[in-house]
Design brief:
about 400 residues; alpha+beta; DNA polymerase, domain 1; 3-stranded antiparallel β-sheet
Length: about 400
């Protein structure tokens, strides 16, 4: 199959069913980002024959004889495209993960689309900026001071140090630097809110070509930890195992499959057979604390939970002064119960890690995290590795907002 990417002709065939995003990233165009993987966020936006498309929902096979432009091909040599320059000078980004796709969208806007930016950008999401900075960039409003003399940088708006890399797509995030020859891990997740894995059959998974290992709860350390990166037990309990026999929420990881390719690991996951004992689930916060409610954790477990029979981590009451007297003497007392729906932090860069052991036996983990030092402590504790033999670090992080304060990968 012959096609053009950034004015260079390629002859290559995609894998069956491969989307344009993964195809382009395999060719080295890591400015094309993976966010939602469903055509909603726009982080993967490229041009096909001059028109913006979401490459995650575009078939690579459809590119036969077509011309594709990614963020890496938008500039003219060292001269930035006007929209790249506008985003740099505004600056129209913070974490920058959405920026490559956002620029590809904005650079293609017509005058009519510019007149209604909320509608024009509905397929391109930014979690950081609130879109004010992006609108400024589109309107050519610059906030970066470009004429700051040496020694006068303090107090000046000097712009982002990696700004040029962000607007050209050359700055790398965690999964933009994956060494060749690495193994890949995929997990089998629970389809039930509460269930026990009575039997896990991994025989067929182990026979899949390219599958290197399969792990269940019987193969991992039995040390509990909290995925939340807090050091205070009053904030989060140590209630999690690397892999557990009991699922306590839908989507909990139950089996890990290691493959020499992503496809092999995914196929291995599909071959795992789990026989479930479905248990009563607690689905309402207030009902969870009532007598007779299903227990998420049993008291016999070693999870640090003060009242497991009430599904209660800890009961805290606080006040200042004489609360009863203040309420009795107040002219107006307003009593109400406030409820909020479940919310997501909605960072566009997904959780991900790359790990390797060097010739000195040091485990290096590059991860998209807000708290690499606490990750280091938890890895050392859970897996019994000396602290000086664990090195956790981050590259550029594509948004977090608290979600990246979780140790999930």
């Amino acid at each position: 199959m012959s096609f053009i990417v950034n004015d260079r002709e390629f002859t290559s065939s995609p894998a069956p069913g491969q989307c344009l995003r993964t195809f382009l990233r395999d060719l080295g165009h890591t400015g094309v980002k993976k966010g939602c993987d469903s055509g909603d966020c726009g982080a993967c936006t490229v041009w096909v024959d001059g028109r913006p498309v979401h490459s995650c929902i575009t078939s690579a096979e459809q590119m036969r004889g077509r011309s594709v432009t990614t963020i890496e091909g938008l500039a003219d040599g060292d001269s930035l495209h006007p929209m790249q320059d506008a985003f740099l000078k505004s600056p129209g980004f913070q974490c920058g993960f959405c920026t490559a796709g956002m620029i590809m969208t904005c650079a293609s806007l017509t005058d009519e689309q510019r007149a209604d930016l909320p509608a024009a950008l509905r397929g391109s999401l930014c979690r950081c900026t609130g879109f004010r900075a992006i609108h400024d960039a589109i309107d050519g409003i610059a906030h970066v001071e470009t004429d700051v003399s040496p020694g006068k940088e303090i107090g000046a708006s000097v712009g982002a140090l990696q700004g040029r890399g962000v607007v050209t797509g050359s700055v790398h995030y965690t999964l933009d630097d994956v060494p060749t020859g690495v193994a890949h891990i995929k997990v089998v997740r629970s389809p039930h809110a509460h269930a026990r894995a009575v039997r896990i059959d991994t025989a067929a998974a182990r026979e899949v070509p390219g599958v290197l290992a399969v792990y269940t709860w019987e193969d991992v350390p039995r040390k509990r930890f909290t995925t939340a990166l807090h050091e205070n037990h009053l904030v989060e309990p140590d209630d999690t195992l690397v892999l557990d026999q009991v699922a306590r929420f839908k989507g909990q990881r139950m089996v890990a499959v290691v493959g020499d390719t992503v496809a092999a690991a995914e196929e291995g996951c599909r071959k795992v057979v789990i026989e479930w004992e479905v248990l009563p689930a607690v689905l309402d916060v207030e009902e969870a604390m009532l007598p007779g409610a299903p227990h998420v954790h049993d008291r016999s477990e070693d999870a640090w939970i003060t009242q497991p029979e009430k599904n209660l981590l800890i009961d805290m009451t606080f006040g200042r002064g004489d609360v009863d007297e203040a309420l009795a003497s107040a002219e107006v007392v307003h009593r109400a119960t406030y409820r909020t729906p479940r919310q997501s932090h909605a960072q566009l860069e997904t959780h991900g890690s790359v790990a390797w052991v060097d010739e000195d036996g040091v485990l290096h983990v590059r991860t998209s995290s807000q708290a690499p030092f606490i990750c280091k402590e938890k890895i050392s504790y859970v897996f019994g590795i000396r602290r000086d033999l664990v090195h956790v670090f981050t590259g550029r992080v594509g948004g977090g907002f608290g979600s990246k304060q979780e140790m999930l990968t």
